Amino acid sequence: MTGWMHGAQMIAFNMQGYGKSLWIMHGMFRSNGGCGFVQKPGFLMERGPHNEVFDPKVTLPVKKTLRVRVYLGDGWRLDFSHTHFDAFSPPDFYTKLYIIGVPADAAKRKTRIIEDDWGPIWGEEFKFPLTVPELALLRIEVREHDMSDKDDFGGQTCLPVSELRPGIRAVPLYDKKGEKLKSVRLLMQFRFV
């Protein structure tokens, strides 16, 4: 993201392991129908009236506010064994939402933990004011809360904000390797104000 925001034409990705960096790269290249080509916004290709270039560190006024409502999640019981998350009880899921982009837009939110439920219902809404929505990505990660150990991974996706369409959507989640989980979905609503 840093190279892209500063106008780099080509960027080499280290794809030797799986993790957040690769998930973000997958999300960025979901733009334009997932063909692998993402055209830069005009302000990254043009110079200003005094020959200045875009500076991602400059704080700009808010252009749009993205409102994200996380209604519920389902499908884990179909894609995972009944003891995958907890040996003796249903999982305790929560969702983390991140905005990745220029530093002024970076944000992190988290739903409450829904205990002992394979189909958690959150019904929570979050606001993300965006100064440069053209460069923003929405990263979504579901985790299973574990009191005695590290929280378990339940799925993730990364979506370009410029590609989000207002309305209620069933958002598929992916595993750590970026493979789509067969049944797991989040029911979410996206709005721009």
From TrEMBL:
Its EC number is 3.1.4.11. It is a peripheral membrane protein. Gene3D superfamilies: C2 domain (2.60.40.150), Phosphatidylinositol (PI) phosphodiesterase (3.20.20.190). GO terms for molecular function: phosphatidylinositol-4,5-bisphosphate phospholipase C activity. The keyword Protein biosynthesis does not apply. GO terms for biological process: intracellular signal transduction; lipid catabolic process; response to stress. Residues 46-175 form the C2 domain. It catalyses: a 1,2-diacyl-sn-glycero-3-phospho-(1D-myo-inositol-4,5-bisphosphate) + H2O = 1D-myo-inositol 1,4,5-trisphosphate + a 1,2-diacyl-sn-glycerol + H(+). Its cofactor is Ca(2+). SUPFAM superfamilies: C2 domain (Calcium/lipid-binding domain, CaLB), PLC-like phosphodiesterases. It is found in: Cell membrane. SMART domains: C2 (SM00239), PLCYc (SM00149). This is Phosphoinositide phospholipase C. It comes from Capsicum annuum (Capsicum pepper).
